[in-house]
Amino acid sequence: MALSHLQSHFFLVCFFALTLIVQSRIHLHHSDHDALLSIFKDFGIEPKRNPCNLAGIFCERRITNTSDSLRVSRLVFESQRLRGKLSPAIGQLSELQALSLPDNQLVGQIPPQIIGCKKLEVLNLRNNGFSGKSLSKYPH
C-alpha cells in the first residue's frame, strides 16, 4: 500500500526531528559548571575538558519545562591525594546525591553551604584534616 503525500511528509519531518534531537548536545547546567570550577580551583585541579567526562564526576540528565541539561549527581574522589579545602560552592550542586572524598589531604572547615545539597544521601569525608563544627551542628 502506497503512502499518501501527507504521510510521507510526516515521516520525513519525524526523521529530521529525531536526527536533530540525537545530534543536539546536552550541556552541564551553568550553575553546576561554575560550582565545579570553584571546587576544582580549591583542590588545585584545572579541568581540561567537560567535567562530566572526568573520572569521579557523575552527571545525570535532568529535564525541566524549559531546558534539558546535565546535573552533577555524585563526586567520588577516594584516595586521590587531593589537597586544599572544600569550596563553599559545593552548596550550589543542588542535585548532588553523593560526596565521597575519603583518604585525601583536605583541610579547613566543612563549609556550611553544604546544606544546599538537599538531595545528599552519602557523605564520606573520613581521613582528611577537616576542623571546626561537625555537620550535626547545621540545621537540616
From TrEMBL:
<dbReference type="InterPro" id="IPR001611">
    <property type="entry name" value="Leu-rich_rpt"/>
</dbReference>
<keyword id="KW-0675">Receptor</keyword>
<dbReference type="GO" id="GO:0016301">
    <property type="term" value="F:kinase activity"/>
</dbReference>
<keyword id="KW-0418">Kinase</keyword>
<protein>
    <submittedName>
        <fullName>LRR receptor-like serine/threonine-protein kinase RPK1</fullName>
    </submittedName>
</protein>
<dbReference type="InterPro" id="IPR032675">
    <property type="entry name" value="LRR_dom_sf"/>
</dbReference>
<keyword id="KW-0732">Signal</keyword>
<keyword id="KW-0808">Transferase</keyword>
<dbReference type="Pfam" id="PF00560">
    <property type="entry name" value="LRR_1"/>
</dbReference>
<feature type="signal peptide">
    <location>
        <begin position="1"/>
        <end position="24"/>
    </location>
</feature>
